[in-house]
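Assess this one:
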Amino acid sequence: MSADSRQVDNQAAKSWRLILLFGLLAIIASAILFKLFSLYGQDQAFLQSQGDARTLRTMLIPAHRGQITDRNGEPLAVSAPVATIWADPGKADLNHPSLGRLAQLLELDRTELLGRLNEFKSRQFIYLRRQVSPELAQQVAALRVPGIHVDREYKRYYPAAEVTSHLVGFTNVDGEGQEGMELAYNDWLRGDPGSKLVLKDRLGRTIKHIRSLEESDPGRNLQLSIDLRLQYLAYRELKAAVQVHHADGAAAVVLNAHTGEVLAMVNQPSYNPNDRSKLSSSALRNRALTDLFEPGSPMKSLTVAAALMSGQYKPDTPVDVSPGYIRIKGHTIRDHRNYGILDLTGIITKSSNVGVTKLALSMHGDAVRNLMTNVGLGQVPGTGFPGEQSGSLPYVSEKQVVERATMSYGYGLSVTPLQLAHAYIPFASNGMIRPVSLLKQTEPAPMVRVMPEQVARDVLAMMETVTHSGGTGTRARVPGYRIAGKTGTTHKIGAGGYIADQYVSVFAGVAPVENPELVMVVMIDNPKGQEYFGGEVAAPVFSRIAAGALRLLNVAPDDWPEKDTKRVAMK
């Protein structure tokens, strides 16, 4: 074969290989183009759904709500870890074999569960059950039902239940304060949630935690001024009194005489914040801070104090209250009987309406009202509690002699139990007063003098006679302790004026007299039966609460019988 023919054959072979190579390249290019067309056309919806299902997501990290405690650190409100079961109905597998078990765990009928998932199929989120136990949540997660998810959250729990419910309040299912201190200090307690970046699979399950974006900021703790031991004691005695006297309601407040801190605040009726299924609106009120009533005779102590401050009277100044009544501009003011001539101490002991009326009308027109204003009546206490009332202390001119007279013995004005207790602090602290507080105080607010020290001591000594033989509050006595106080019984006000057969029974007092530690007010709303006077209904409750509180606080007795004192000295 010649050289020329061989050269031709080589060129032909090269051409064939080039054609084959270009052909293969064309086939590959066609396959790539076909695949691209398929991805961007027919498979686009599928790929989009897969990309959405398996992607990076930002999840919230719930913040732990702050704890509420009493003054000694006893928990009153805590947050327990729970879980929420929710669904993405559009991605839920309605034919999953574990769907029946899921319904059983959620305490739902299978048909009901399917109905809800079908009804909200257009949504991406619905709650199935909230605040379930972590154990139940684990069982639900183990079923691995597509579209069913588990998230962590917290549930508020109240260890003291109804004993502290009116003061502490409660939160809603989202952890936001709704009543009481939970509402008043919601921003302080709730904290700020954090966030994290996670990778989720096509079923929406978290398969990997990528990184933390923002740390959650837990809520701050709140320490109240109450002593849970005293709170339990006061609640027990108040509840028993309401049951015995078939009263409509009641409230009791115990204050620290030195700091103004609220050591106990209880109300009836109450409710269990851990189970609000049978909650009534009447049980929600913190009556000690929101319910107003005419205080009646406890105001006589302030009227007598104003008389002593005027310089016109001394404790033994005689006042003629005969014949047991007095007529003022067509109105008759009466005592229970004709007491004849009483000194100022006797006016307090016998609770003479005629006596304090004569005192009030003999002084400058503003004398009594000014003292009532100085001790906080007619003003919001400033505790920060939602709905606390200011009461009413109307201005009366010097010419309004009837109104001046009725105000002197506690009619024509209104107070809350807390305001009344606050007004009695000067008698326990040598004429000084400071604001009341629902929070434990490390540095109490400065005290302000509202009456001379001697006046406060004189009136305290007068009020002690109320609990002695011949006084109206003998049932307020506590064995081993000297007790001072004042009873009160007022008619309730209805739509047409005073109601003849409905009363508010009150006792306001100080214990012990020698070195006062506690100021307390007990208010019983509409006791029914033969007993309705403050000395019969409220005073015994005061006695039982004071007796227990003084022992719990290790307050030394100041009224040991003389024979016991001699026996101790001999030992």
